[in-house]
Amino acid sequence: MQSTNRHQRPFSDYFQNTMLVSASNIHPLKTLAGSIRSFTGKVSKLSQNSSSKELPVNERNELFNRIQELEDKCRRAEDALFTLEERNRLLGDSAPFGIFVTDTDGRIFGANQKMLEMLAWPADQDITQLKILKYPPMVDSGAAYAFQQCLEKRTRMTSDHSCLPSTDRCAHMRYHLSPVIDKNGRFLGIIGFVEDVTALKHAEENIVASEKKYRQLFESAPVAMIERDASKLKLHLDQLRADGISDLQTYFDRHPQELIRCMELIKTVGCNSAFLDLMEAQTWEEIDSSFQMANNSQNFMRLAREIILMVGDGNIVDEREETLITLKGTEKRILGKSLPLSGHEDTLSRIVIAMIDITKRKQAEEALRASEQRFREQAMRDNLTGLYNRRYLYQSLANLIERAKIDGSVVSLIFMDLDRFKDVVDAYGHLNGSAVIKEVAKIIQETLEKPAYAVAYAGDEFVVVLPGFDPAQAIAQAQKIQTRIKNNIFLYDQGFEVRIHSSVGIATYPYHADNMNSLLAAADHALFDVKDSGKGSIKLYR
């Protein structure tokens, strides 16, 4: 606080008529001290009056005792007043901000030490000489205008202004002004609190600059980005838990329409041009209306549920692949990653979702998988006929028998070759012989239904695997194949009419063999018996 001298009174004196010092404390003390001094003065004059000496001794002594008692009370009152003023002075000077009081004309009649430093007021000059409305530094900074508004409107005001030129390391001051009104409603002046907000202003400026830089990066990013505000949804979910709904998954299972209402609580803050390009849209409004129309789709409800539960758990950092339909109906595969901006982890008021279009990559991966599948199948297929080859037969048949052992099913095997095929090759050549093999393979394949399959075993030999077929069913299937081959005219497109017959041997697991090799051997043995007995027939292994 500014020290007391002949120019300046104690700080508490300036505030004794304001709210800074309680009138209930100061006024009774001052009144008591004044009354005592008035009374003792009168008594002193009375004691000097000759007539007072005529008072009886006991009355005179009583009078002087009262005088002594009043003087003691006076001293105690003054001590109490001094203590109160000293306490207020310490409080004022200890405050981290400037405090001052003006009269109704804007003249300062009290200020703490911090305020004197802010005003750069000389210590040897009376502060009451400063009139804010005319003080050039305050006029130049605009603070005087704020005072004028507070004086005229008599309402509380807060305004920021530049610091006074002579104030070191200060760039911005914040003035909190309030009118002083007594209990009778009289306007007594203004009390002001002034704080140095330079650091705060710099922080705000840095935040603005940082936000501007972030916005520039956000807008110019080549990756599709959208910023969303999930704070209202988080508050809603927190309230549900406070109301006793601890299991949100069960709650949304029972109230699926709540998912739509919850999703409406998530607001879009903005999106960049790359996101509009991804969605094949011109404006966000086009996308928003499209989302609203899709609110009842199964995919939307699934995604909404996942998002809402993530917000409920507070676990927003996520990376996933999703299928997205653009405004033009284009289906795209995207890789999305979401995370809250720094400083918004608790409220989730700013969540950034970045999306990368991986449609072409996915198409390439699918094409590669298809190519690999074709390659694997080609490795398992015969180049001439397109039927499975012996490598596939050995792998597949072994698995089928193992499965049949477990579930008690049967597996039948047809071993077939073409009768007198060598004569066809000798008569029409190897190329036409290969053409006949292809036609036979096609006939066999046309008679089968999955899981049955045919194998180009060797030359003019074929194997047909029949899972679930018992011997009678296998014989019926062999007859069907044999009849189709017998009735077909081969090499017709080449200008020939060739007839082919076939011989068939059949064996069935578990009746004729207990493993793959013995099953193949049994069917082969049955075929050998047919060949040995005249060809062109079907025989079951005995």
Attribute tags:
4 domains, 5-stranded antiparallel beta sheet, 542 residues, rod-shaped, 15 strands, Beta-Lactamase, alpha+beta
Q: Mind explaining what this structure looks like?
A:
The chain has helices at 11-15, 23-48, 57-94, 113-119, 136-141, 143-153, 198-220, 231-242, 248-254, 257-264, 273-278, 284-293, 298-313, 359-379, 390-407, 421-428, 430-446, 471-487, 516-532, and strands at 98-102, 108-111, 157-162, 172-181, 187-196, 224-229, 267-271, 318-325, 331-340, 351-357, 411-418, 453-458, 461-467, 502-509, 538-540. The strands form three sheets. The chain has a five-stranded antiparallel beta sheet with strand order 2-1-5-4-3, with helices on both faces. Strands 7-6-10-9-8 form a five-stranded antiparallel beta sheet. Mean pLDDT is 84; it is low at 1-27. It folds into four domains: 1-94, no CATH class; 97-211, Beta-Lactamase (2-Layer Sandwich), CATH 3.30.450; 221-361, PAS domain (Beta-Lactamase); 380-540, Alpha-Beta Plaits (2-Layer Sandwich). The longest helix has 38 residues, at 57-94. The chain has 19 helices and 15 strands. With 542 residues, it is of the alpha+beta class. Helix content is 50%, strand content 19%.
